[in-house]
Amino acid sequence: MLFLTLFEIVGYIISVIVILVIVQFVLSLLISFNVVNAHNDFVAAIYKAVNALLEPLLRPIRRILPNTGAIDFSPLVLIVGLEIIRIILKNLAMASVAGNL
C-alpha cells in the first residue's frame, strides 16, 4: 500500500509539472505572436513564476541536450522523463499490491 500511495502522490506532482510546462509553452507562444503583452504586470508575473518553477528542472536537461538553435526540446524531454517515472512507479505499486494478496 505504501507504493500505491507514493505512486498517487508522485503522479499528482508529475501532472502539475506537465501542466506548468504546457502553460509555459502556450504563454511563450502568445507573447511571441503579440497576442498578449509581455509588459502587462499580470502576464509578466505568471511567466516569471512558471519559469522560476520549471528552470531547476529544465536547466540540467538543457546542459545535456545538444544546441538545436531556436527550438528548445528540454520541455519535451522533461515530460517524457516524468512519464517514464510515472510508469515505473505504477508498475512498482501494482507489483507491491499483487505481492500482498
Molecular structure report:
The structure is a single chain. By secondary structure, this protein is mainly alpha-helical. It has one domain (2-100). It has helices spanning 2-32, 41-64, 74-100. Helix 2 (41-64) crosses helix 3. The longest helix has 31 residues, at 2-32. It is elongated. Pfam families: CCB3_YggT (PF02325). Keywords: Membrane, Transmembrane, Transmembrane helix. The chain crosses the membrane at residues 12-36.
Topology:
Blueprint: H1 2-32, H2 41-64, H3 74-100
Largest sheet geometry: none
Residues in helices, as a percent range: over 70%
Beta-strand fraction estimate: under 5%
| Number of β-strand runs | 0
The number of helical runs is: 3
Shape: elongated
**What is the chain-wise order of helices and strands?**
HHH
Helix/strand structural class? mainly alpha
Ranges with pLDDT <50 over ≥5 residues? none
Distance between the termini: 11 Å
For the record, the count of structural domains works out to 1
Kindly provide the radius of gyration, computed on alpha-carbon positions and rounded to a whole number of angstroms: 17 Å
Mean pLDDT: 91
